């Protein structure tokens, strides 16, 4: 069985369309989404509507949660000093995205589960206990095992960190999907994960970044220039 996992779209319709074209070539039997669908992009409502229309099963991401539960962002920021300088900017963007989505789409996001289990594969957005915290690609084997072994899956898949990788740990494989938008590894291409009979591989998909930058410039999203800088650099930037 071939399973694709598409995560962290962040309202980027241009990148999403490119990934959809690639999916038509790879022809998976099942497509899952890993959350973080709408916030920080030019087309949040369009992305939510497309995912709903496609009927992809998926999980809730941290930016999905902050849209339907604003307090979750403040709680995380209170535990993360590095977030404090960014909090007001992120809240401005979230408020605009929340308004663009409307209550019915927010209710749909609120109903997303925290895990998806398909055979030997389990998907979470970040970690089993949190959609806000996850180990990075440089984490030790021991850390990855301590976080993901409780899922009791042969393959534990997550998104959130915007850096794709695959790590084999004997009986457990841990893989990160990377992100459709806002890549953090220096590669501006979109990324998603494709599993052939539970064997994961990263797919990178080129898209017209300049077209998405134009969409951001005209969408009215507060602090869109910050998102544009991150898309351009494919690494985290400050506002």
Describe the protein.
The protein has 239 residues and is an alpha/beta fold. Helix content is 39%, strand content 19%. The chain contains 8 helices and 9 strands. The strands form 2 sheets. It has a 5-stranded mixed beta sheet, with helices on one face. Strands 2-1-8-9 form a 4-stranded mixed beta sheet. The longest helix is centred in the middle third of the chain and has 24 residues. It is globular, with a radius of gyration of 17 Å. It starts with a strand and ends in a 6-residue tail after the last helix.
Strand content: 15-25%
How many strands? 9
Mean pLDDT: 97
Low-confidence stretches: none
Compile the SSE list and pairings.
Blueprint: E1 2-6, H1 13-26, E2 30-33, H2 44-54, H3 62-68, H4 70-79, H5 87-110, E3 115-118, E4 121-124, H6 141-148, E5 155-158, E6 165-169, E7 172-176, E8 190-196, E9 199-205, H7 209-218, H8 224-233
Helix pairs in contact: 2-5, 3-4, 3-5, 7-8
Keywords summarizing the entry:
single chain; 239 residues; alpha/beta; 8 helices; 9 strands; 39% helix; globular
Summarize the structure.
The protein is of the alpha/beta class. Helix content is 39%, strand content 19%. The protein is globular.
